[in-house]
Amino acid sequence: MQVLHMNKGNGDTSYAKNSTVQSKIISVGKPIMKEAVLEMLCNNVIESMGIADLGCSSGPNSLSVISEIMDTVEAANRLLGRRLVSEFRVFLNDLYSNDFNNIFMSLPAFYDRLKEEKGLEFESCFILGAPGSFYGRLFPINSLHFVHSSSSLHWLSQVPAGLESNALKRLNKGKLYISKSSPQSVVDAYLLQFRNDFSLFIKSRSRELVAGGRMVLSFMGRSSTDPTTENSCYQWELLAQAIMSLAREGRIEEEKLDSFNAPYYAPCAEEIKDEIQKEGSFTIDRLEAFEIDWDGGAVTDIHTPHGKLSVGRRVAKAIRAVVESMLESHFGVEPDVMDDLFIRYGDIVGTHLSKSRTKYINLVMALTKKW
Ligand SMILES: C[S@@+](CC[C@H](N)C(=O)[O-])C[C@H]1O[C@@H](n2cnc3c(N)ncnc32)[C@H](O)[C@@H]1O
Questions:
Q1: Residue 242 alpha carbon to ligand 1 centre in Å
Q2: Is the CB of 308 under 6 A from ligand 1?
Q3: Tens-digit pLDDT profile for the chain (371 aa)?
Q4: If you take atom 19 of ligand 1, which residue's CA is the nearest one?
Q5: Does domain 20-369 have CATH number 3.30.200.20?
Q6: Residue 322 in contact with ligand 1 by CB distance below 6 A
Q7: How far apart are CA 64 and CA 52, in angstroms?
Q8: What GO biological process, any one, is recorded here (predicted)?
Q9: How much distance in Å is there from the Cα of 155 to the middle of ligand 1?
Q10: CA-134 nearest atom, ligand 1
């Protein structure tokens, strides 16, 4: 949590310019989000609706979800011919190191659009930053009606215990995440960390949401119970190959690769359900899995030599915008080595995708806080 942040600003390697996959994930989950908002409003008038987007990052996606939620409320207002929500209190959460400045700078234009397109005055929509970790309490008791989080909960609060870079034994040599060759102790350490983190997340939100409040979460997962399945870990496998190729040339220390384990976990539906049911304050209204292309589906023709390369490079840029801060902090490499790493990674990904159309699995769930 101290090192992870998406690439800041609006430059070529920024998250703002390389978040098409996450935008696709938001649009895939939109019908579930809309359904949850409408069901919550059904027969309900909320004077001041508390909404939180957890892991909002920066860039075009940060406010797009909020805009969608407001559109859904406005559509319900029109349908019923009365105002169901008088004002919105919107909390944008992310870690302390997130580029909040970038979001705040885009707020005047956002408020202008609210007025022009939705007829909403500034006085009826209060957007606030809420820095901190969602693995713990962020908001006062019973202050929220709707919680949303997209593409964030697959990040763990820390590298699983026993796999940290200062651990005595290197249990997952040559790998960055769970892989087919990882020992069972590595798989167990990841699952335990996920269980601890996710249960703390659910427990914290159960204090903050009012009874009947909704939560729509979407994050990377897997469709098989096997944690070594390709669609949950192969992007890391290929990144490890690119790092290894630089290590062979002495441009990265191989020991650094052996001591890195990503604070990431792609759970299956059963693992999620277990934690929600154990905690006991939410009902699961929906839990669905969607396949997402590694490039967000932006380019379909991957068979021409140029097309193949461009898909790989696009995927590499998307992954770089997310993981560069962690790699930089752990490997401590010069910028030219980082550039070279992601060129190699793009080539490796391009070659892989020309043979196998591996996809991410994105899990979307809608939960209701019990009465
Ligand atoms: C890939 S971005 C997703 C951003 C945005 N929701 C979207 O869909 O484009 C993941 C975000 O989760 C944030 N994040 C990771 N762990 C977090 C934590 N424990 N608490 C709050 N935010 C966290 C990261 O800092 C990052 O900005």
A1: 25
A2: no
A3: 777 888 888 888 888 888 889 999 999 999 999 999 999 998 788 999 999 999 999 888 989 999 999 999 988 888 888 888 989 999 999 999 898 998 999 999 999 988 888 776 667 899 999 999 999 999 999 999 999 999 999 999 999 988 887 776 888 888 999 999 999 999 999 999 999 999 999 999 999 999 999 999 999 999 999 999 988 999 999 999 999 999 999 898 888 888 899 999 999 999 999 999 999 999 999 999 999 988 887 644 444 444 444 788 899 999 999 999 899 888 887 888 889 999 999 999 989 988 888 899 999 999 999 99
A4: 133
A5: no
A6: yes
A7: 13
A8: methylation
A9: 8
A10: 20
Gap between the Cα atoms of 218 and 205, Å rounded: 15
CB of 6 sitting under 6 A from ligand 1 = yes
What residues does each domain of the chain span? 20-369
Protein residue with least CA distance to atom 14, ligand 1 = 55
151 CB under 6 A from ligand 1?
Answer: yes
CA 3 and chain centroid, separation: 16
- Cα torsion 119, 90, 6, 158 to 10°: value is -160
Separation CA 308–CA 301 (nearest Å): 8
Output phi, psi for 270, to 5 deg.
Answer: -65, -40
Q: Does 5 sit in the ligand 1 pocket, CB within 6 Å? A: yes
**58: Cβ below 6 Å to ligand 1?**
no
Q: Which residues contact 157 (CB under 8 A, 6 or more apart)?
A: 1, 133, 135, 193, 197, 200, 263
Cβ count near 296 (within 10 Å): 19
Ligand 1 atom 20: the closest Cα is on which residue? 133
Ligand 1 atom nearest to 157, measured from its CA: 19
- Return phi, psi of residue 54, to 5°: -100, 125
Q: Tell me the C-alpha distance between 298 and 354, whole Å.
A: 15
Q: How many CA atoms lie within 13 A of 358 on its CB side?
A: 19
Residue 19 alpha carbon, nearest atom of ligand 1: 9
